[in-house]
Amino acid sequence: MTALTASLLFILAAGILAYHRAKLIIWTIALTLLLIIITRMHGLTAGVIISWILFASVTLILNYLPWRRRLITSHILKIFRSDMPMMSKTEREAISAGTVTWEGDLFRGNPDWKKMMNLPAAKLTEEELAFMDGPVETLCGMINDWDITHNRADLPPEMWAFLKEQGFFGLIIPKRYGGKEFSAYAHSQVITKISGRSITVSSTVAVPNSLGPAELLLEYGTEEQKNYYLPRLASGEEVPCFALTSPDAGSDASSMTDYGIVCWGEYQGAKILGIRLNWNKRYITLAPIATVIGLAFKLYDPDHLLGDKTDVGITCSLIPRNTAGVKIGRRHFPLNTPFQNGPTQGKDVFIPLDWIIGGKEQAGNGWRMLMESLAGGRAITLPSTAVGGTKVLAYATGAYARIRRQFHVPIGNFEGIEEPLARIGTFTYICDAARSFVTSSINLGEKPAVASGIVKYHVTELGRIVTRDAMDIHGGKAICLGPNNYLGRGYESTPIGITVEGANILTRNLIIFGQGAMRCHPYIFNELKAAQLSNEKERMIKFDQLIFKHFGYGISNIVRTFTLGLTGARIVLVPRGKTSRYFQYASRFSAAFALLSDAAMIVMGGSLKRKESISARLGDILSYLYLVSAVLKHYHDQGRNVDDLPLVRYSCEHCFFEIQQRFDEILRNFPSRIAAFILRPIIFPLGMRFARPKDRYNRKISQLLTSPTSTRQRLCTGAYLSDNGNNPLADIQDALVKSIMAEPIEKMIRTATQDGDVAGYTPQEKLQHAVETKLITVDQYDICMQADAARRKVIAVDDFAPDELARLSTGEINKNHYAQQSE
Ligand SMILES: Cc1cc2nc3c(=O)[nH]c(=O)nc-3n(C[C@H](O)[C@H](O)[C@H](O)COP(=O)(O)OP(=O)(O)OC[C@H]3O[C@@H](n4cnc5c(N)ncnc54)[C@H](O)[C@@H]3O)c2cc1C
């Protein structure tokens, strides 16, 4: 064995140990054995002796803890403590909220795919299915969104009554309180189906079932509060809202100026200890009609009537609408989506202490409560609403692209239309997969804070792209509002989902990676905690243990990233099948992500929090890995239908391309140029080889959407498709089926026209001539006529009498005008 071979052997062994994240003791034993073998083969040459000296010095320092701590750890700890990000109490509570699920595995660079594939698939129980097929189906049939959004700016009274009677406001409330006790997935399915019909109705149903009184009471309420409120909320006797946002406190809700002072006051004729409240909230959904207001405010106890703290902290309480000093009832008008939403103010409102959710023991814990609830809830309402929209748009737009003809061909045949159509199909698939994946984890009792941020952000953003593409494909049909327009209101309301429950820019830039780094990284959060320990000895011991594990993790990530990049990740064991390469690519990028996120934290330290553009891109990489996982799991859970493969391939290739671009952008903008120079060849040893999905997928996916295929049916399952006489999706499906039947006959007539065998100026005249000349049969004539009628119904748009659209009559407008002039 030459010295070169021996060195290579040594490097190889170290590489294998690093790849498998071996413990320090295993490293020491394995490399000692290897050196013994080399020594026996070579004898004690100068090279071998130097190797022994170097090896012994390093292993001694690393394994003898007093030396290691003094020589290495103490210095790192000093730097670490001086560069630790400062965190406020509210920030700490926000970061600590919820649990970590699959995103944690992806963050750590070595995802266990078998574990993911074995996670239970999202499924409805018999009872939940019956609710979907019964009350939800009936409700969808009752909805006339134009009437709601244009005529009434509210749901009709019979719909309010139906929602309450059928328990729509108690989906998450346990049965013992009269609720439905549905799973997160069932809750999501309900919102998905309704939102495809009306965002106004789905928002109305969503709010009592999301962050608000019911959820907070369930988790933190006293028995008395639960027994009083939960049955009343489940039956709809009480209508709740939750007021957090104020004019000066939107995204940074914790900076609210709404406050309460602990003091003595009078309640029902008796002098009691309570809180005097003042607030000014806005944007509060259901507030105009709420009977009970969940309120978040800052509680102060200047006279120390509760304890020794003056600034008690953010507190949540329930306040009946009719309490003296409460002002409520006015409405906002959110983008022509008139669910009940409005401001509320309170002036010197005195409330008993036991109106605090959870009683006075929970005073000051409001922020933690809200963050915990949002950790899971963020994954349900808005993603489900967006998914409902994408399903309807995928179903309708595919059919429309076949029905609508220009230049004598269905517009879906143009490559220019195939491209957005493929995006619609693919993004709908990704959104549905992500929503199912995250809600199935909530079903298991998780509150996946980071994953819910990922799903909220990406599903609403993809939903926005799908909406835009669907509008473009429909052209003027989508623009002219009226009862026949099934896209306009959805398009108008898209920014609502983008803004609420954590506005998207903030979610992307601050939450996904910011919280992910703290919660999913195997060591950082604990290192921060260890570095803050007041006992010096304990601090050193804990920090030393963690930091050396962290070193091993970092070295392993370098080796894994480089090896997987070089081998195209073919060495990773993954589930076998047509998607196996996607699992391997995801493993490769997961390792590279673990490496790059560590490098970013080392280089930027606490300032990474302010480097939002880097943080956002790191968050994107984690998010796309999560979306790929969800897509692969969805494909598996739906029975690996090969027909769906174009959607799976496009989804994964889109995500991998985006991942690659984000790595590139981070490296280009990395503050340390040396670090970027070293990292690039480790992450991309063979260059950047991922491309955007190929054009051929556009055609394949368009074909899947422009015909009544099983893939289209699966993709749109969960949407309201029934023919109730007032469902544009049923009309469009009818037109699609009839058009497909008519297509070969119409082709025959076109050819005959070109040959001069059929005459006429309009298609109808040619058809008439064709049947008269017996080119086609009477049955074929009927098929074409029916297809034409069905098509005309779909492409029709609404028009109005000149005065019909004005909100005020001409007389009222003139009256206002003259009144203003005379003022
Ligand atoms: C229709 C509707 C219904 C709502 N329902 C309720 C409700 O029921 N209860 C309730 O309490 N609230 C509700 N809200 C409030 C909602 O949660 C807030 O609108 C949201 O938190 C954003 O606050 P803001 O609108 O004041 O935007 P701002 O906070 O002013 O944000 C403006 C922009 O700045 C971005 N931004 C802010 N900080 C950062 C940062 N650090 N980095 C990067 N970008 C940042 C945001 O992403 C956003 O794009 C509702 C809002 C609407 C519109």
Write the layout of secondary structure elements.
Elements: H1 3-19, H2 24-42, H3 46-63, H4 65-82, H5 89-96, H6 102-107, H7 113-117, H8 126-142, H9 145-152, H10 157-165, H11 184-195, H12 199-209, H13 213-220, H14 223-235, E1 240-243, E2 259-267, E3 270-285, E4 292-300, E5 311-320, E6 326-328, E7 341-352, H15 366-377, H16 381-403, E8 405-406, E9 409-410, H17 415-443, H18 449-474, H19 476-479, H20 488-499, H21 504-520, H22 524-531, H23 536-567, H24 580-604, H25 612-637, H26 645-669, H27 673-683, H28 695-705, H29 710-716, H30 728-754, H31 763-772, H32 778-795, H33 810-822
Parallel strand pairs: 1-4, 2-4
Antiparallel strand pairs: 2-3, 3-7, 4-5, 6-7, 8-9
Helix pairs in contact: 1-2, 1-23, 2-3, 3-4, 4-23, 5-15, 8-11, 11-12, 11-16, 15-18, 16-17, 16-18, 16-20, 16-28, 16-29, 16-30, 17-18, 17-25, 17-26, 17-28, 18-20, 18-21, 18-25, 21-25, 22-23, 23-24, 24-25, 24-26, 24-27, 25-26, 26-27, 30-32, 31-32
Flavin-adenine dinucleotide binds at residues 242-245, 250-251, 283-285, 334, 341, 496, 499-500, 503, 505-506, 509-510, 612.
